[in-house]
User: Which sequence fits this backbone?
């Protein structure tokens, strides 16, 4: 039995109650097989065994009061997975589904993603099982303060630098940073995704959506095609999805779908700049539902209680490119089969692990360009890294400068993934290439430190 199978079996038996972590770990480990023979030094130092075990997982109580003075208790998490190449770095997710297994899967992914960005960042993730939906501003503020009241002692600009993820945007980062600053009495780059007035970076809000589109454009270019005239399915309607629509439209593509937890809109005429501005306002300050899109634009269609991928399957909608940007496991094997049937040639993951293991196999078996999350959506954390650099230097770059760096980083991730895939005998396989390229960098650093 190879070391890879041993590690997979051990994690499966030790972390039985963490299906998302098992899935992410199985996907990564499965693709690391070609590294075992080439790197006996990794095997000897038990790097494979060590990398699946977080440095530490912090679990804490978050008590807060709602607007009626009723007390609520949520569970907070921060998993500091690996800091071999830099301070722990990764977002905070606020969603009722958050548990240790989900935070571990996200933190594990973050190790390799962050390594791919070329910037010095380790992997971590956190969050709480708090549901921001329907909460007042004051309730969100009190929750964020209560969360930071414990988290502050575990983080720092050279230790661990959290950011946003699902349910955590500019508002939440503002409350958390404000509270950190108050109790630690330091104005440092301890969080990223900050507002521009207090240390944030230009292009950070756009970074993940632009990045995933740049990555898809790089993949398409290997086949001599581009976004012009292509029908693009995008799921979600948060920060990633919104800026993916913007960049796709700028590159000449036609974004035709968006979704939220209540349903999907299909606009076959394309979600142009004016319609996107409506969505940004609706989903931003108004915190409304995507169903309102069809009230404003009645030629679009709304499908309640479905995902984008259900609708594509059921309606037989023709799609050239898919940018899943909602959440994990939104695309099943069945969805993937329908996408292939309906013409998809390229899938780039804006969300973390949106395709399950069966779906990935369908894409790869059918020669679909498949850009895995840790490569394709790394633009967000990459610009977080650039925000850290600007904070340390106490200066701010222009949006042109940050965007140019983002573009350069996405190009370099694309190349590193292809190069590693080829070097390890899996030419054109972005999944294997991205995992190996990220892993090798972290593994080498771990090796240098000895047995710690
Ligand atoms: N949550 C984002 C991700 O999944 C961004 C993390 C960050 O900027 O630290 O990569």
Assistant:
């Amino acid at each position: 039995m190879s070391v890879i199978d041993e590690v997979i079996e051990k994690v499966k038996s030790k972390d039985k109650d963490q299906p998302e972590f098992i899935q992410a770990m199985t996907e990564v480990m499965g693709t690391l097989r070609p590294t075992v023979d080439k790197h006996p030094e990794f095997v000897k130092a038990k790097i494979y065994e060590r990398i699946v075990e977080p440095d530490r997982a912090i679990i804490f109580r978050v008590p807060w009061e709602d607007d009626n003075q009723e007390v609520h208790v949520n569970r907070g998490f921060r998993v500091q997975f690996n800091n071999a190449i830099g301070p722990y770095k990764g977002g905070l997710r606020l969603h009722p589904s958050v548990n240790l297994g989900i935070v571990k899967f996200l933190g594990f992914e973050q190790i390799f993603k962050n390594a791919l960005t070329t910037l010095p960042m380790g992997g971590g993730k956190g969050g709480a099982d708090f549901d921001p939906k329907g909460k007042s501003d004051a309730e969100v503020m009190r929750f964020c303060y209560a969360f930071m009241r414990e988290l502050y002692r575990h983080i720092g600009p050279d230790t661990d630098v959290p950011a946003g993820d699902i349910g955590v945007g500019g508002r939440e980062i503002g409350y958390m940073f404000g509270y950190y600053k108050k109790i630690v009495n330091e104005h440092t780059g301890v969080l990223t995704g900050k507002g521009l007035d207090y240390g944030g970076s230009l292009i950070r809000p756009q970074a993940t959506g632009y990045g995933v589109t740049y990555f898809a454009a790089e993949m398409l270019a290997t086949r001599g095609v581009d976004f012009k005239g292509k029908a693009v399915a995008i799921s979600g309607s948060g920060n990633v999805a919104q800026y993916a629509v913007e960049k796709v439209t700028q590159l000449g593509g036609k974004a035709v779908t968006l979704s939220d937890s209540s349903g999907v809109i299909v606009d076959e005429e394309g979600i142009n700049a004016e319609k996107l501005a409506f969505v940004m306002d609706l989903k931003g300050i108004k915190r409304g539902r995507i169903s309102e899109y069809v009230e404003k634009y009645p030629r679009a269609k709304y499908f309640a209680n479905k995902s984008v991928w259900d609708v594509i399957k059921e309606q037989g909608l023709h799609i050239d490119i898919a940018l899943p940007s909602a959440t994990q496991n939104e695309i099943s094997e069945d969805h993937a089969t329908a996408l292939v049937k309906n013409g998809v040639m390229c899938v780039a993951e804006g969300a973390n692990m949106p395709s399950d293991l069966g779906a990935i196999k369908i894409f790869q078996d059918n020669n679909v360009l498949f850009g895995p999350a840790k490569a394709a959506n790394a633009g967000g954390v990459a610009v977080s890294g650039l925000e850290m650099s600007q904070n340390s230097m106490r200066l701010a770059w222009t949006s042109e400068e940050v965007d140019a760096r983002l573009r350069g980083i996405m190009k370099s991730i694309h190349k590193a993934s292809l190069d590693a895939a080829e070097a390890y005998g899996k030419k054109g396989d972005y999944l294997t290439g991205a995992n190996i390229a990220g892993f090798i960098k972290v593994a080498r650093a771990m090796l240098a430190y000895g047995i710690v």
Remarks:
- The chain has two domains: 3-188, 207-367.
- The radius of gyration is 21 Å.
- DSSP finds 19 helices and 13 strands in the chain.
- The pocket of glutamic acid is lined by residues 89-91, 163, 165, 192, 352, 380-381, 384 (CB under 6 Å).
